[in-house]
Amino acid sequence: MKMNNTLRAVLIASTSMVWGGAVTAQEADFETSCALVNGVLPANCTQDNASEVVVVPAGENNELDRGNAAVGGDGFLISIDGKPVIGDKRVEDEIRKTDIALSNADVQVKFDGLGAVPRLDLVAVDQTEAFEAGDVVTFRSRTNYPAYLSRGEVRMVDIGNAAGPKTLAVVPVQPNGSVSVTIPEGRDVVAIHRVYDARGRYNETEPLSLQGSDDRGLFAQAEEGTDATRVRGIPVSGGAITVYGKGVRSGATVQTLGENVKPDADGSFVVQRILPAGERDVEVRISGAGEDIYLQRSVEIPRSEWFGVATVDLTFGYREDAGKNAAGGAVDKYYDRGRLAFYVKGKTQKGWNITASADTGEDELSEIFRNLDKKDPRHLLLRLDSEKAYPVYGDDSTIVEDAPTSGKFYFKAEREGNFALWGNYKGQVNGSHFLRNERTLYGFQGHVQTQATTSKGEPRAELDLYAAQPDTLPGRDVFRGTGGSVYFLQRQDLSIGSETIAIEIRDPDTGRVTSREVLVYGRDYDINYLQGVITLTRPLTGATGGGTVITDPLGENTVQLTVNYEFTPTAGTIDGYAYGGRAQFWATDNLRFGATGLVEQTDIADQTAYGADMRYEISDTTFLELEYARTEGPGFGSSYSSDGGLIVTNTNAVGGTGEAYMARGQVDLKDLNPDLNGQLGAYYEKRRAGFSTLDYQTTVDEELWGVYGEYAPTERLSYRLYYDDFTDDAGKVAREGGLEVTYKVSKRLTYDFGIEHIDKVTPAGAADETGKRTDVAVRATITVNPKLEYSVFGQATVSRSGGLARNHRVGAGVKYQFAQNWTFEGEISDGSRGVGALALLSYDNGKDGTAYFGYTLDPGRSYNGVDLSGKDRGQFVVGGTRRLSQAVDVYAENTYDLFGQHRSLTSTYGINYARSEFLRYSASVEVGRVDDSANGDFDRTALSFGVRYENQTGVTGTARLEYRRDRGVYNNTSRDGDTIALVSTLRYKIDEEQRLLFSFDGSYTDTDGSSIPDGRYAELTLGYAYRPIENDRLNVLLKYTYLHDLYGQEVDGTNDPGPRQKSHVLSLDASYDLNRNWTLGGKLGGRWSQSSPDATTAFQDNDAWLVVANARYHLTHKWDVLVEGRALRAEQAGVTEYGILGAAYRHIGNNYKVGVGYNFGKFSDDLTDLTYDDKGMFINLIAKF
């Protein structure tokens, strides 16, 4: 039996209260006339519940009544707009008079206790182009919580420093203040804003690049509400006071909340500050340009504030006849069912912020509290059962997911950086070199940290824990940089928000990760979750680094894009658990110990990993790190592509048990002696066979170590030395060491000298990959002016043995900013290994346009999964972005790779077009093509088109069409596939009383089923709501749904497909108020359906009609009575059932109801209820809070 839907609607409606404007004559004339006659109420103006006294609790007022006079002898006061009307005229409502003054001045003061979001940002006020060393730039701090801060600073950091990020300068700045900074010398200098509280804890922003424009600086005096916080260590509570206004005269200034605010061009302003709990006086002063306004509002920011809703619905019943279930079997005569649901959000007086929600769903009482932690994807984002909900209710309500959970329960409690959570989350176990967790999971997550901090603001001790039961699998795709910005993932239909994307620099010989930078969505990349396409905001090269002696003309370190994400497999089930955590503590201000443990028992993975680490640091660039890690069992594999995802090589996870050791240390000579300029460092790693992590799959024992150093005794002279040694049990050896000297003859001329020795043994490689070689090189660099620099270089092999080829090479390079915004960088060389070339022509006007053209030719290049056949002619990249007008933005990129007979072309084109302020279009095309006579040809086309429309008359519409087509054969395997998807929604506000909604979701897939299911799906929904405002006697809800599902939707949260169906469902609900107490209602429902349990069974008809008519009696705070008649027609069975239901409810106070009813029919009013067990008596208990 299911809960009667009509009865449920009655109960919900009868406990609702709406406060509106004036009562209309039609409303007042329902039963009695209460219109004033000569200022006197008529004698018959009485109601049935006139003698009923009900106390309705009212919420607290944050406004202070300080200074108000006591109420006089009349005992009451009624005032309108602050002016007394009836009562003691000595009493004046000063607060209301302030409201009127604020309104007349077009200024508003708002308090928000639960929705305050701390913000921190840094802007370059006068930045229009890229800055260079020696330039002076003015930075402005922006934050909305200065009351919690004691100081701030701007940190200039060189993130391009070879030995790791290095802090070059720290300049103090007051929160919300400004400071001018001279840009120091560095390879890639960025600005970071850090603020501290009185206990030394700090928050920090994302790095602000100084290589491009920052349009936020154009209005640096305005409160824009931007947030760039990367590190949050300062607890911020209290409440947010927001002051905003408009129409301020040009030239006038606003003073409020301790700030001077400059309105924007149209005279509008907004400023928000988060303030601690307590009594506050908010002053607003507008002066200058003929303005002279001063207003004050007194408010109290509470220490504790709560918001919550809850409902308890219990039903106990007796079936008069032995009921039947859907299969015709007997069911028990006695039954009980119930549902508990609540949502609560608030903060305690001790500073705990609590968010919690639960919904048990309707079930037997013995079952509703069981499996509260059970994962149920239907609860995600409050997805409503389509058979129980209307697509539009006419009240313009929206859903905000404040308690994200894939189950029945969500809870989060946080205070001063500590929190405990049950729900959906993203793993944050990091801090170890070898082990980390970045998965998006459902379950428990907790973080505990001490309030005591080190002198650098780090918590003395931290503990992170998580435990989950995943129903998705992690994917990991690795791409070698192509010089372009578009990369195709191996899988489609990814879990939204689950990705972690990073750029890694690796040693190509040892696989050692030398640096890793996590990218930020929206700033660094965009992603199409359905198509599985990553688009970077900047092209990514495939190699970087190198010294004076050239081993690889394009760069000696490999640049890789790593993408971790979650996806749902198209076949099979996922069982198991994932749990782990990390603990770390600072024994002193310089010494940290940590331990990490991870367990993964999901799908093919059955791995336990744990480790311990230690770090001793004097500064960011002087430190010692030790780490041990061990893995037992296989983890998850990964894929690799060197052409952006067209050709993919899969790597399975390594099984067995393995260990890894790491030691790394570095000394910045300035920390020993401020007069010394240089760094010394060393590292050691050992990885045993069977060691398996996200970054390493070790099949044989590996050992690597190295040393490096830089020293500049004078401004003109500097030295650099390095040595790396790698060996493994398979016999592979890779040793490389060298010494470089740089001497600046003058500001214009610089010489670099270098010598390098290489020793390689490659047992499984070609003969020319084993041997020894010593090379010497010299380079001369001439800086003509800040815009022009060129160099010439030459090198020769002075000693060689074995199969290694000689490495003679000569070449030249240039970097030239030949016009405003135009830069050319190029290098060409020739030598023993062939011609190498690199060219990049780029344009960036810092505002509305970029363009680039690049060419690379690497004589030693390799291609994953492809043997070179013919001559490698390099790779071309051309692309750019352009704002053609205020309405049109376009972008395009083409990457053309000529690797012998294997040739590939990757193209992307896109446009964003604002047709008007109401209508916007977006479109993109991604095309990939491989021509390979040896391995097979392959084509991929991905199209995307979107439109959004929203006008001022109430029409809002969105639509997106996606298409992907794969054709070809690679290594005798067909890769054909087609995917089409359309998602659209249209909302129409006919008038203030009527709403119309249309939506369509459809997909067509013809694939091998490895990445996305094969099938057809379409769902069309039409909804209408009539909800009058002034005369609300008649209310109408209408819904029509067409469902064409040939996939077979998942059932009970498993991956097993359910029945296929093609169905039309129509539902119409209406109610009409005869008077204040009596309402007539009705429902008309129809289902025309064909269903099939699987793809091998023919569809069968399953049609039904339902007609319901009811009468309801409602006496406020006393009684609810329902009498309802029903008729159900099952067409194919040729059966018509009739029924009558009656129920009466008594209100108990404001929150409770007790009802009793009887159903004379055997069926409910739900067309999806296939049981015939509803005849009998029931008792219903309801509580609402």
TrEMBL record:
Residues 1-25 form the signal peptide. It is found in: Cell outer membrane. Keywords: Cell outer membrane, Membrane, Signal. InterPro entries: Beta-barrel_TonB_sf, OMP/PagP_B-barrel, Porin_dom_sf. Its main location: membrane. The keyword Signal applies. One of its GO terms (cellular component) is cell outer membrane. This is Outer membrane protein with beta-barrel domain.
